[in-house]
Specification:
mainly beta; seven-stranded mixed beta sheet; four-stranded antiparallel beta sheet; 11 strands; 127 residues
Length: 127
């Protein structure tokens, strides 16, 4: 069974930075795109960032574009999310996920396109 384990969450003041990590196991990591999503209390899970299997293509929604950066190190089976200029509205549980389709030609941006999910890591941004 594929396992994804997130780390790096915590409490930070507005304007600060955090880097989330997601380590994958039992997955041919270099063949699958990866994504980050977040879910705030009472809200639906929201797409945050995605990177394709090779790392050549990334995609972000407008809400985080220019502040968040997704990257991957295939030799370490790890995907990262660097979050800068954090805002209170970024507060949520952050989840990483692996694409359901190997070597997808574009990045996946919807929850239904992802097969496996981590347990989540809490990010809290204080004002």
């Amino acid at each position: 069974q594929v396992q994804l384990v997130e780390s790096g969450g915590g409490l930070v003041q507005a304007g600060g930075s955090l880097r989330l990590s997601c380590a994958a196991s039992r997955l041919t990591f270099s063949s699958y795109g990866m994504g980050w999503f977040r879910q705030a209390p009472g809200k639906e899970r929201e797409f945050v960032a995605a990177i394709n299997w090779s790392g050549a293509i990334t995609y972000y929604p407008d809400s985080v574009k220019g502040r968040f950066t997704i990257s991957r190190y295939n030799t370490k089976n790890t995907v990262y999310l660097q979050m800068n200029s954090l805002k209170p509205e970024d507060t949520a549980v952050y989840y990483c996920a692996s694409d359901s389709q190997p070597r997808r030609t574009v990045v996946a941006v919807s929850t239904g396109q992802y097969a496996y999910w981590g347990q989540g890591t809490q990010v809290t941004v204080s004002s």
